[in-house]
Each structure stands twice: as structure tokens, then as C-alpha cells.
Amino acid sequence: MKYRINLITKKETNILDEIVYFFLNYLRYIFVFTQLIIITVFFYRFRIDQEIIDLKESIDQKQEIVQVVSPLIQEVAKIDQRTKEVRKILFQQRKTEQIFDYLISRFPEKIYLNNLNIEKNSAKMEGVTFDISQLQSFYYLLKKEKKFALVNLSNLKKIDLGYSFTLTLLDYQDS
Fold first, then answer.
1. CB burial of residue 31 (10 Å; 0-12, 13-18, 19+)
2. CA distances from 168 to 11, 128, 158, 159 (A)
């Protein structure tokens, strides 16, 4: 039989000794864990920095695209303005054509025009007639149909072969 006898007395440990013991045994684990966190943050920072660089490059590319496209956009705006002006002119031409078609469809045979001026929504006719009743019936027809807000017969004069007149028609109303 063997006996073990420990003649060394057990040393009393104080709190400082325990703290030193803890740091000596476990501090390496704390360092490793801290280093892992630092490395993770470091790589995360690399990733974030790369995203920032990519976003800046994307912004630069988009700015270049805008610079390249801006003359095209300006040209499109000019073309749009011209198109609007053309539409306005075509509308006015259609209106003038409607006035002309209306007047020609109702114009008597025995009235001869020296001048016909159609502008915007109005018309001015200067002419000669040999039969005053034709002019009178044309005048009353225009008043009756109310296509023009104002129908004015003026400068009616007797000349050698008949009568000269000026007929002013204002504010054509298409219905």
C-alpha cells in the first residue's frame, strides 16, 4: 500500500492571485475572440468600401449618360414645340378651309368677286353683282344660318353694270 503525504501546506489564495490566474489562462481566448471580431469588421469595411466605390462609378456613368442624352432631350423639346406650332397652323388652315367651303357652297351664281380675304375666323368679300336680289338673298341666308356672329353689308354702290359691295363676315362658328 502506498500513501501519499503532502507536506506542503496549501497556500491561501487571495483575489489578486485569482485575477492573475484568470488572465493567464483565459486571456488568450479573449484575444482570439477579439481578433476574430476585428477581422470580421475589417472585411465588412472592405465590402462596404467596395460598394461605395461601385455606387460612385454608377453615379458617374449615369451622369455621363445624362450629359450625352441632354442634347437629344433638347432637340426633342424643339421638335415638340415645332409640332405644336404645325398643329396650330393646320387647325387654322382647316378653319379657313371650312369657311371657304361654306361660302362657296352657298355663293350665288350671279355675284362676281373681285377680292376674297379669309383670315382666322372672318372673311371679307368685295365684288360686283348685276342682280341685287341675288346679293340680298345671299345676305339674308348668311344671317339666317348664323355661321358668322356678324354679317355686315357695306359700301353698296351703283356702278355702270350693276352694284359693287363689301360683305364683312366675323367670328365663324362651326357647329
1. exposed
2. 131, 15, 19, 20
Residue from 125, 100, 92 nearest 111 by CA? 125
CATH architecture for residues 108-172: 2-Layer Sandwich (3.30)
The rounded distance, in Å, linking the Cα atoms of 82 and 74 is 12
- What is the per-residue pLDDT across 12-47, written as a single tens digit (0 to 9) for each? 778 888 888 888 888 888 888 999 999 999 999 999
Return d(Cα 106, Cα 3) in angstroms, integer. 145
What cell was used for 175?
A: 357647329
Residues 169, 44: Cα–Cα separation, whole Å? 83
Nearest Cα neighbor of 148 from 168, 127, 128, 126 is 168
Type of residue at 70? S
Q: Report the predicted TM-score, pTM, of the whole model to 2 decimal places.
A: 0.57
Say if residues 139 and 156 touch (Cβ distance below 8 Å). no
**CA distances, 45 to each of 36, 142, 159 (Å):** 14, 87, 103
